[in-house]
Amino acid sequence: MQVPTKLALLALSLVLLSGGVAVAEGPQENPTGVSKEVAVGKVMAPGEMHKHLAKMAGDWTFTNRMWMAPGQPPLEWSGTMHAETILGGRYVQSIWMGSFMGQEFEGRGTEGYDHVAQQYASSWVDSLGSGIVLATGTCEDGGRKCTTTRSSSDPVTGGPSTMKTVVSWIDDDNFKREMYAKDPASGQEYKAMEIVAKRK
Fold first, then answer.
1. Residue 104 in contact with residue 110, Cβ under 8 Å?
2. What is the DSSP string of the chain?
3. What's the predicted TM-score (pTM) here?
4. Best CA proximity match to 128, nearest among 163, 164, 104, 153
5. How far apart are CA 197 and CA 135, in angstroms?
6. pLDDT value for 36
7. CA separation for the pair 122, 109 (Å, rounded)
8. Non-local CB neighbours of 106 within 8 Å, separated by 6+ positions
9. What is the mean pLDDT of residues 131-157?
10. Is residue 145 within 8 Å of residue 166, measured between CB atoms?
């Protein structure tokens, strides 16, 4: 007997709304000993790590210095940033605006903490590229220092590229974001960018 289309769609929507997980009846292996209710609640609810990220919510001014290669003088520019928490405090979304080398610049970031993977995760897009930059990492000192590794496509070689980012909170109204790249000539790591932000 063929299931009517509307019933099939209803069943599919119920599975998707419940998280896309079908649970079989009968005893299930549970090596962690954590109940499903506790596990789901922990995964779904914002936690202490999300509170650390929420410090970025607000309006900021920033200065940016960028080094194209080791030993070269930096390019300098400045701008503003607005950030807010979204989806019940689970993520922080930021919009960065400025002018870079005579061009208007806009960048957007989304940051969160993944309970399942137990790591911070972020994505970044901006008006100077066409790719999506993804990053994952950890924080220490009560969330005052976070180190992530970001991956993207290298615009010069077309291949994969990685970069280390370190965010250091001086206090609740000032933070610094440093990005480190590898010099293709020497293979040595060098500071490629430094952003100093101050709350308005």
1. no
2. -PPPHHHHHHHHHHHHHTTS----SS----TT---HHHHHHHHHS--HHHHHHHTT-EEEEEEEEE-SSTTSPPEEEEEEEEEEEETTTTEEEEEEEEEETTEEEEEEEEEEEETTTTEEEEEEEETT-SS-EEEEEEEETTTTEEEEEEEEE-TTTSSEEEEEEEEEEEETTEEEEEEEEE-TTT--EEEEEEEEEEE-
3. 0.77
4. 104
5. 20
6. 73
7. 7
8. 95, 96, 97, 126, 127
9. 89
10. yes
Residue 45 tokens, joined: 């609810």
Nearest to 52 by CA among 120, 126, 134, 154: 120
Cβ count near 124 (within 10 Å): 20
Task: Kindly state the tokens that stand for 149.
Answer: 């590794």
The residue ranking higher by pLDDT, 183 or 19, is: 183
C-beta of residue 143 within 8 angstroms of C-beta of residue 49: yes
1: amino acid identity, one letter: M
- Which domains, and CATH codes, for the chain? 48-199 (2.40.128.20)
